[in-house]
Amino acid sequence: xxxxSQTPKYLVTQMGNDKSIKCEQNLGHxxxxxxxxxxxxxxxxxxSYNNKELIINETVPNRFSPKSPDKAxxxxxxxxxxxxxxxxxxxxxxxxxxxxxxxxxxxEGSRLTVL
Amino acid sequence: xxxVGLHLPTLSVQEGDxxxxxxxxxxxxxxxxxxxxxxxxxxxxxxxxxxxxMDKRQGQRVTVLLNKTVKHxxxxxxxxxxxxxxxxxxxxxxxxxxxGNLIFxxxxxxxxxx
Lengths: 115, 114
Known about the structure:
A: mainly beta, 11 strands, B: mainly beta, six-stranded mixed β-sheet
């Protein structure tokens, strides 16, 4: 069973459209994240949610809105897509406690292409 | 801007040789470091981590070395195998308790020649 699963894996859309990427983790973790990886493979955190509450919100345009209906899900909605939004978006999860090794479990990524 | 960088963007090694991937970080307050491996078309996968109160940690075929004096981190892979071919990232965090807010380096692509 996939620990962190995100859909869709590929998404091609036109500028100006609105799209969503869904993420689910079955690890029982209390914290979930969205990372963006650009064409040069650079990974940068966008958002972090702990038990459905936003704890990290990096400098991201407000066109990006994360939503966490429960601690096992963190969806990413993007409004008015721009060419620069083209990237691979990774969902991840972890458990923040003293026993944690610090490991982030990443999904397989969702490649977004904006035309 | 990013505070973590890599000396070598690409590294090509012969199968069976040892590999060393280097990383420099600039935030002296960082106290937790992780190495991730990303295979083509997949998400990053945790390899090994180290806290700032250590200078060396070993795993299975991998060793991470931390030199806080020069703010340098390295990943050593023993007896490199074709399956080790991937992009390797170092990442740092100021506190391991907030390990999700990782600052990633730019990645080194490791190619293993048979």
